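INPUT
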Amino acid sequence: MKEIRVPVVERILNANDQVSEQNRGWLHKFGIFSINLMASPGAGKTSLILQTIARLSSRVSMGVIEGDTARVTMDADKVRQAGVPAVQVNTAGGCHLDAALIASALSQLPLAEMHLLLVENVGNLVCPASFRLGTDIDVLIASVPEGDDKPFKYPAIYRGLQALILNKIDLLPYVSFDMDNFRKGVEMLNPGVAFFPVSCRTGEGLDSWADWLESRTRQGTQSSD
Amino acid sequence: MKEIRVPVVERILNANDQVSEQNRGWLHKFGIFSINLMASPGAGKTSLILQTIARLSSRVSMGVIEGDTARVTMDADKVRQAGVPAVQVNTAGGCHLDAALIASALSQLPLAEMHLLLVENVGNLVCPASFRLGTDIDVLIASVPEGDDKPFKYPAIYRGLQALILNKIDLLPYVSFDMDNFRKGVEMLNPGVAFFPVSCRTGEGLDSWADWLESRTRQGTQSSD
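OUTPUT
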């Protein structure tokens, strides 16, 4: 079975990488900096996007792509209600976004008016790590109630990140979460990664994240001019 | 690309179903009732297994298979420390367990001495729903901090369940979780599914779950004699 399976998977991956490069070129042509937001289900991807919009949308023009496995529109609806253009992408049960889905979504966004694109991947700590989308950076949202052992259990996704957000720090008093162990796992896999402990519920830590993202966006759009 | 891809995927699924049927036959031959425990990363699969062992292992002889994407043994170590035989299975980055991994793990367990097998799948709400393992029932552990919208976003995994556990109810006062909305989503997809709100931290609700599982185990092992 392996003789049949491996080459096909490789061909699909290569096709994805090609479309991913096209997406990257397209986004840079428009001077758009883009991030791929990954997380477990329920870690707070949409909440983080809404909090980021609240802090940045008056200073940076944004667009959002919302990925889900099911035919739902609730996340894109929330983003649009916050005044930011959003496209909902349905993977039809698939466990990750891929570059072709992003290419299709890009054609529905007002790229000429945007400087920052936030992509919300499917909630999953495994599959999204293997499929490039053409975005500039990968960001993971971990969350306190998931537990401090997740870097050790899902190392592939922690390895390639440019930023790590730890959400739900307001729950630290109510759960057992060993911050030293979590940081130890992260440093082992990805030394020096930008780290933002936040609470999307209370707002704690989110200004630092938004400032960092604004700064990276300005660097990114300058360098791609 | 689709003309190449679909038949290969179908063939792999069929091969998995065949091994899954072999696993089921093997387990029933030994009079073992088995459950496939699925959840998001960090929802509390291992905690639930340990709490189940604490309540049932004196009445029902058990074994555990622990699935992880990485080469770690911490979960199996915890189960063995609790006095129950356990095998750690590594998917080498794969996003779900499959029937062949279970077949291999079964050969390392003392089947003749067991009546109940708990299988902990990889933390993922998408991929595990598509691969049968040969277990008797599928159980999902949702958790309060994930949010009440998960049935709407990950419908495939909610549809096939025989039991649903909602863990971390001790966090209900500290997060926004609309229980009515959650139940509405579950009922829409899986009407009448056995439902156990629990806290693996405080122990609340776990006796009901353990009693139900013991009862199902006794029915299951009788019917397969």
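end of record. The mean pLDDT of chain B is 93.
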